[in-house]
Amino acid sequence: MSQLLESPRFRRRVGPLRTLIIAATLLLTAGVALRVSPSVARAIPAPALAEPATQQMTSEVAIVAGGCFWGVQGVFQHVEGVTSAISGYVGGTRDAAQYETVSTGTTGHAEAVQITFDPHRISYGRILQIYFSVAHDPTEINRQGPDVGTQYRSAIFPANQGQARAAEAYIAQLNEARVFPAGIATGIEPGREFYPAEAYHQDYLTRNPTNRYIAVNDLPKIEGLKRLFPELYRAAPVLVAVSQPPN
């Protein structure tokens, strides 16, 4: 518990008053809250609209946002067919694309992940299925778990009109099927540029598996991926840095 409450990232996100309230709650519950993940993987149907890859397509890029990029990156680094997953910022200007500034929630940026994948091994539709079912809760508005602010919004940044159509159709399909207890809040924001995050944010889940924030909020997502998509799960993640010392 102390590791979570003493984390500068945690304190900066929730503020001093909320930190005190959370600390009191955790003490009253004797640590039970730390064993309950705010993210629960959910089985959902695959997209009905799927555009097959052409022979000319050897690589495709998807950009999604769903709360803290540590967990979203960690999930897709364990997906077969993904060749790269980079944490970064989307939605604001280049000058504002730095963690301390984005954390103010005033830049228009969202913490996001740029996913490069082989469309002959995994489709864009399957990327979206994992995104909605495992990587985050798409019904949350401007928050995920303990993280609150527009920088933690649920959003898809399509690279082209085909991706935009696929995302719009899938959101409509999931809402119609009512697979979530509330409507999907995920926005679709085309024409946005991706800016990679600082090096210390890359591969954070892999490098810090005992970090309390990671253990509570993000490792359950990896377990959800293994359980719901065993055919797409790979044990060895594809990392931004092959070797990088821990923080």
Explain this structure.
The chain has 247 residues and is α+β, with helices and mostly antiparallel strands. It has a single domain, classed as Peptide Methionine Sulfoxide Reductase, Chain A, CATH 3.30.1060. Helix content is 36%, strand content 15%. The strands form 2 sheets. Strands 7-6-1-3-2-8 form a 6-stranded mixed β-sheet. The longest helix has 21 residues. The N terminus and C terminus are likely disordered.
What is the topology?
Elements: H1 2-6, H2 8-28, E1 60-66, H3 69-77, E2 82-90, H4 99-102, E3 110-117, H5 124-135, E4 143-144, E5 147-148, E6 154-156, H6 161-177, E7 187-188, E8 194-196, H7 204-207, H8 212-228
Helix pairs in contact: 3-5, 3-8
Brief account:
Helix content is 36%, strand content 15%.
Which tags fit this structure?
247 residues; Peptide Methionine Sulfoxide Reductase, Chain A; 36% helix; globular; disordered N terminus; disordered C terminus
What is the helical fraction, as a range of percent?
Answer: 25-40%
H/E order of the elements?
HHEHEHEHEEEHEEHH
Second-tier CATH architecture: 2-Layer Sandwich
Give a short account of the largest sheet.
6 strands, mixed
Task: Give the radius of gyration.
Answer: 17 Å
Q: How many domain modules? A: 1
Structural class: alpha+beta
